[in-house]
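Q: Here's a chain of 331 amino acids. Please give me its 3D structure as tokens.
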Amino acid sequence: MTTTATYDLAELQKETRMGAMGSETASREIRRIDLIHFAQRQTEIAEQLWDAAVDVGFFQIVNHGIDLAEVRNAFAMTERFFALPEAVKAQYPLKKALNVGWESRAQVRPSTGTPDQKESYQITRPHMEGLWPTDEELADFQATMLAFEGQCWRVAMQVLSCFAWKLGFDEAFFARAHDPAQASYQSTLRLLHYFATPPAQQAHLGLWRAGAHTDFDCLTLLFQRQGQGGLQVCPGKEMDSQAWTSVTPDEEAITCNIGDMLMRWSDDQLPSNFHRVKNPLPGEYMGPRYSMAFFAQANRDALIEGPGKKYPAIAAGDYLNQRVAANFKAY
């Protein structure tokens, strides 16, 4: 792996100490790529996606095919889930080995050493037995979120088909590697609730909504609510300068980023870069922040091997375990 995805614990903790509030630059463009008429424009779109991914590792897509009303419905259901009493949510606890279930203030980033100020609920299709709220607790939750997860999968595979073509694989290469019909499927839809920030906490620089990190997957699709900002990105090559760029929420756009898994699969041509969710500053929106992230993670038995075979082939399940162990072994 290149240094983009392998900053060690000491370097990430230094990042937090030196840039707790974070310097920021508006000069980095997070490109917006229009997927309209995808079939007719696939070559053009693939070139645009590749250029944006190679340059920053982050981009936004519009006209992606998921109706805005369905995005809003999924967000409404997300808010209803997190509004349930803690005693109810605690019936569906996170199963770390399977990446499913609910947790709260439990994820400690190496970059901060403190728990992220959020709660989350993770959906991974083959492992959800006993983890869905009942219809009495939250009617239609399971059906709504599974339908939304399926739409996210479709969009992710469309984007990945472009990267497959650029890498010299066939168009359906990544769709086969992320097959939801298999028991080894491990793509995840994660619902996120970042807690409101009390005024007294603004000066507590040791707390973050989400500390700096890279994602471990192939591709992340992030849905943000209008007016609920905080996401910032920074290519790894610029970590020393702390040049963070805020990504303004736009409910009609999906913010995408390359993960460590695709960086390896591309022989490091596609960078997996750092991002974080900062605490609001004085004068900014202090209320809760909700987001939904779909992590396209290849099936556990899919073999990761780049076109140039820069790294030894490895099963996606083993690779994911390695990345988790490398990032959280100290905690």
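Q: Can you summarize the key feature?
A: The chain has eight helices and 14 strands.
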